[in-house]
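Re: [ENG-882] Designed sequences occasionally contain unexpected residues at chain ends

Forwarding the minimal case from QA. C-alpha cells:
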C-alpha cells in the first residue's frame, strides 16, 4: 500500500514545484508529473495509472489535475475503485479511504448522473416539440435520384466504396438504405443477392 502522486500544469511556463512539494509532504513515494493541457495526451498520467497497484492511493493536489469533465472524473474513480485503488485530493479534502470521502464522491456521482438524465430528457422533449411543429432532426435524407443511381451502381457490381466516392453519400448511410431495401424485398417475396465488398 503506497501513496502515488500525480502533478500537472497546463503550460511549459507554469511551475510544478508547489504541487510536487505538497505531494512529498503527503508522503508520496513516487510522483509522476508533466506539463500538458487536459485535452492533450498525457503519457505520464497513463504511466501513473499503469504503475498503481491494488491498495495504493492516488494523490493529486487538485481534482482538475485528473480530467476536464465530471464524466471523465467519474469514469476514472470508478476504474480506480474496481482496481482497489483509493483517491486523495489535497485541496478539495476528498479522500476515498474515509467513509466521509466515499459518501461525498457518491453524492457527486449521483448529481452528475442526474444531470445526464436531465439532459437526455430535455433533448427528448425538444425533439418532440420540433416534430410537433413539422421539423425533424437528424441528417438530411438522400434524394431519390441519388439513391436510385447508388442502387443501380450497386446492382451492376460497383463496390460500396466506389459508390460513395462517386456520389455524395456516406458508407454507413448507404448500408442503412440497402438494408431497408432488402427488408422490403423480402416482405414482397423477392430475393436478395449478397456479395462481399
Amino acid at each position: 500500500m503506497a501513496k502515488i502522486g500525480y502533478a500537472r500544469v497546463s503550460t511549459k511556463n507554469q511551475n510544478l514545484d508547489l504541487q510536487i512539494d505538497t505531494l512529498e509532504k503527503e508522503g508520496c513515494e513516487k510522483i509522476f508529473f508533466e506539463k500538458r493541457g487536459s485535452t492533450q495526451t498525457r503519457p505520464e498520467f497513463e504511466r501513473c495509472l499503469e504503475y498503481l497497484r491494488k491498495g495504493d492511493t492516488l494523490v493529486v493536489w487538485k481534482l482538475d489535475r485528473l480530467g476536464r469533465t465530471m464524466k471523465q472524473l467519474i469514469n476514472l474513480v470508478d476504474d480506480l475503485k474496481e482496481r482497489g485503488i483509493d483517491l486523495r485530493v489535497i485541496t478539495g479534502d476528498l479522500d476515498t479511504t474515509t467513509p466521509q470521502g466515499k459518501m461525498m464522491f457518491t453524492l457527486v456521482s449521483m448529481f452528475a448522473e442526474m444531470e445526464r438524465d436531465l439532459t437526455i430528457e430535455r433533448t427528448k422533449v425538444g425533439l418532440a416539440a420540433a416534430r410537433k411543429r413539422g421539423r425533424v432532426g437528424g441528417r438530411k435524407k438522400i434524394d431519390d435520384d441519388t439513391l436510385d443511381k447508388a442502387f443501380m451502381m450497386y446492382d451492376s457490381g460497383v463496390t460500396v466504396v466506389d459508390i460513395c466516392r462517386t456520389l455524395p453519400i456516406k458508407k454507413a448511410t448507404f448500408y442503412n438504405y440497402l438494408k431497408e431495401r432488402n427488408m422490403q424485398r423480402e416482405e414482397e417475396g423477392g430475393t436478395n443477392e449478397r456479395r462481399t465488398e
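QA comment: On inspection the terminal residues look reasonable. The radius of gyration is 26 Å. Proposing we downgrade this to a documentation issue.
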